[in-house]
């Protein structure tokens, strides 16, 4: 039996390493986003600053046993074997839960997940003990679980979400009124004072949150506690002078220093305080094993009261943990995926929206718009105009429209994000309130985005839906953490070593699956073979660049159409489903080009405005092509998936003949646009009647078959639909060719 517990310790150590990786991937959003989104500092330097913060915070961290002895459960009420089951269930659940959120790109709270996992596992183990104890009922649960602490944590979660969002919005609104979007001019007069305030707040945050609990904090704790006002005042004077000298000497904005120091402080606090979320439970298990081994008492009889005592941290362990966290920060692609979610929701400009609107987001946006309209009637018009002027954004003249090269938001907003998050976390820590750094940093960023008018009428419904999805994910985390950890606890209790082996194997398989899934998504996102936005300013350039997109659409349409007919002939739902996905991807790319029309027209030269009409018409025909493919793919999949009768041999033979004609036709079009030999278009247009005549003949043959031998109405409906949509597809392609040929001749 002792060997089993030793193997459990080894497994917990391995899980701790994996948990560090997925934990950093999730929490990197807390300290990277402001610097990355504002582009105040090159990405390489941001990573170096964050790495230093993480490593220093991890090495000087202490209180490794905090989670295990915070009062979520009462250790003295459990025996060693029960504690080990709880810890094993918690770690397996934690790594899978965090990795799931990282894979889908949503930030969640490592603190909340570990707390609710401990709570869920402890509750189930307590219920098992109660069921085996004579005279104890469900009410005895309070003897094992600290329910008061659990309620306090839930209230803390809700309050942190509301307070962080509200204060972030208020501070950002006032800051924008002072600095406007023309920060270069305002920083000359107010930069030193702003830098002094911001750096003072961040310094206070480093001492109160980042270094609290380290071995060095005790030596100056008394000085900080007894002279807080003096230290804050002195710090403000020093930092204000420093800010002024920095701007005078280096001719750069002090906001760069604010963002750098703020990122360092949040990274420091994350590693110094949240490290316990990843290795605290394995450390508690390790010390439990050491105590039990020395006791000589049976595992089922040894009480774990020793967990209530303070346990010193091992420097080598902290050093190793810090190194793993830094390496994860540099090499984890999931960390960037989670970061991108918050940056996309907070960005100032328009662009592709990741989230789809829902009923609640529409209601909130509509209600907010009505409230804003009410205030417009109440406030004097002159005051409204003055406020609106403070929020006027500078016009950035770029040689080409490349929104993705611009910062998501400016340095004022990045600084406010860091300062406000730091102050809120420090204040909560000083009042000993439960708080999630992820919740605070995310909601502050969302509040500042709203106040900065980043959520306009064009994007608000999508951004609000995104925020609701993330918040919903947080509460989902708590529920799933509790339920999953409790379930695993029961399974391990009844299955012991064999069940642990099965669960560990399942965890490995799920982690590998999530890794492959995320890798494929990233690969798909980086795929350059999709449709490209036209950036040319002249008609000639538009014709040349559009040729690549037409060739791309024609090539993919050819393959999709052929695959659909093969899937239909073989009744292969997998092939048809794959074709549906291919059509959807193509449709999304065409839709993205249509969404870019506004910027395309704005970017044109005055002498080339007629090119906009050509481009819009071409996009219209491409849309028609994709819509025909979409109808064919859905109809084919629905027919096969519903187990309707397969198409008759003659019908399949006719469709294959059409496919051969269409393939030759599409291959020729693709070759023309690949080689940009547009003079060949004329000969294709001249032969268009041939393919139309072939389709018409097939329709007449099916009419004759229907009157004499056809017995399946579903087959007849599907077959006619395929022929008619194929005809529409060819019409759209012919119209596109004619438009292209006419514009080419005019050029």
From TrEMBL:
Q: Where is the signal peptide?
A: none
- Localization in the cell: Membrane
Where are the membrane-spanning stretches? Answer: 6-24, 45-63, 83-102, 114-133, 153-175, 187-207, 227-247, 254-272, 316-332, 467-492, 498-516
Its domain of life reads Bacteria
Q: Topology in the membrane? A: Multi-pass membrane protein
Mainly resides where?
membrane
For this UniProt record, the keywords arranged alphabetically read as follows: Membrane, Phosphate transport, Transmembrane, Transmembrane helix, Transport
Record InterPro entries:
Phos_transporter
The record's family statement is:
Belongs to the inorganic phosphate transporter (PiT) (TC 2.A.20) family.
The protein, known as = Phosphate transporter
Organism of origin: Aequorivita marisscotiae
């Amino acid at each position: 039996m002792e060997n089993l517990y030793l193997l459990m310790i080894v497994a917990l150590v391995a899980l701790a390493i994996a948990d560090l990786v997925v934990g950093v991937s999730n929490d990197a959003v807390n300290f990277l986003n402001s610097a990355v989104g504002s582009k105040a500092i090159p990405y390489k330097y941001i990573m170096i600053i964050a790495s230093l913060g993480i490593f220093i915070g991890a090495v000087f961290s202490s209180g490794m046993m905090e989670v295990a002895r915070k009062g979520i459960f009462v250790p003295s009420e459990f025996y060693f074997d029960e504690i080990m089951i709880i810890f094993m269930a918690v770690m397996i659940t934690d790594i899978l839960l965090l990795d799931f959120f990282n894979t889908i790109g949503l930030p969640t709270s490592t603190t909340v997940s570990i707390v609710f996992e401990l709570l869920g596992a402890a509750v189930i183990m307590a219920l098992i003990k109660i069921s085996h104890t004579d005279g104890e009922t469900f009410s005895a649960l309070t003897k094992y679980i600290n329910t008061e602490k659990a309620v306090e944590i839930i209230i803390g979660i809700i309050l942190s979400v509301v307070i962080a969002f509200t204060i972030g919005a208020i501070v950002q609104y006032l800051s924008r009124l002072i600095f406007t979007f023309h920060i270069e001019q305002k920083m000359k007069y107010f930069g030193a004072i702003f830098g002094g305030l911001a750096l003072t707040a961040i310094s206070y945050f480093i001492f109160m949150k980042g270094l609290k609990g380290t071995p060095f904090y005790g030596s100056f704790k008394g000085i900080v506690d007894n002279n807080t006002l003096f230290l804050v005042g002195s710090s403000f004077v020093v930092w204000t002078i420093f800010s002024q000298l920095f701007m005078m000497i280096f001719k750069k904005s002090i906001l760069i220093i604010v963002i750098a120091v703020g990122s360092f402080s949040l990274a420091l606090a994350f590693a110094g305080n949240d490290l316990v979320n990843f290795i605290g439970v394995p450390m508690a298990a390790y010390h439990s094993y050491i105590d039990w081994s020395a006791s000589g008492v049976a595992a089922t009889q040894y009480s774990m009261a020793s967990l209530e005592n303070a346990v010193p941290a091992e420097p080598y362990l902290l050093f190793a943990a810090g190194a793993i966290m830094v390496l994860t920060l540099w090499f984890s692609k999931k960390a960037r995926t989670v970061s991108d979610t918050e940056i996309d929701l907070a960005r100032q400009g328009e662009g592709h929206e990741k989230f789809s609107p829902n009923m609640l987001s529409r209601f909130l946006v509509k209600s907010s718009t009505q409230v804003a309209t009410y205030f417009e009637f109440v406030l004097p018009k002159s005051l409204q105009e003055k406020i609106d002027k403070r929020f006027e954004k500078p016009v950035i003249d770029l040689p080409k429209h490349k929104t993705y090269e611009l910062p998501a938001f400016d340095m004022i907003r990045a600084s406010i994000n860091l300062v406000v998050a730091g102050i809120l976390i420090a204040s909560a820590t000083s009042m000993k309130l439960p708080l999630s750094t992820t919740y605070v940093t995310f909601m502050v960023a969302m509040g500042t985005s709203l106040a900065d008018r980043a959520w306009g009428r064009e994007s608000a419904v999508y951004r609000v839906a995104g925020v609701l999805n993330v918040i919903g994910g947080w509460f989902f985390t708590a529920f799933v953490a509790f339920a999953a950890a409790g379930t695993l606890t029961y399974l391990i209790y009844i299955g012991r070593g064999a069940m642990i082996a099965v669960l560990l194997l399942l965890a490995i398989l799920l982690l590998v699956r999530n890794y492959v899934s995320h890798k494929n998504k990233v690969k798909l996102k980086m795929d350059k073979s999709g449709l490209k936005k036209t950036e040319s300013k002249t008609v000639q350039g538009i014709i040349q660049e559009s040729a690549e997109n037409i060739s791309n659409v024609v090539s993919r349409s050819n393959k999709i159409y052929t695959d659909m007919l093969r899937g239909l002939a073989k009744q292969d739902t997998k092939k048809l489903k794959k074709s549906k996905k291919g059509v959807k991807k193509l449709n999304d790319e065409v839709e993205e080009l249509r969404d870019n029309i506004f910027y395309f027209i704005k970017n044109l030269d005055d002498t080339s405005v007629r090119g906009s009409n050509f481009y819009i018409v071409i996009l219209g025909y491409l849309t028609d092509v994709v819509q025909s493919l979409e109808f064919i793919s859905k109809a084919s999949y629905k027919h096969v998936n519903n187990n309707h009768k397969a198409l008759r041999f003659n019908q399949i033979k006719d469709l294959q003949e059409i496919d051969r004609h269409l393939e030759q036709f599409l291959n020729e079009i693709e070759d023309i646009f690949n080689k940009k030999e547009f003079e060949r278009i004329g000969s294709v247009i001249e032969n268009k009647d041939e393919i139309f005549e072939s389709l018409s003949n097939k329709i007449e043959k099916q009419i004759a078959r229907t009157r004499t031998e056809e017995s399946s109405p579903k087959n007849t409906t599907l077959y006619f639909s395929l022929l008619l949509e194929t005809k529409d597809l060819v019409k759209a392609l012919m119209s596109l060719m004619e438009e292209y040929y006419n514009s080419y001749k005019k050029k």
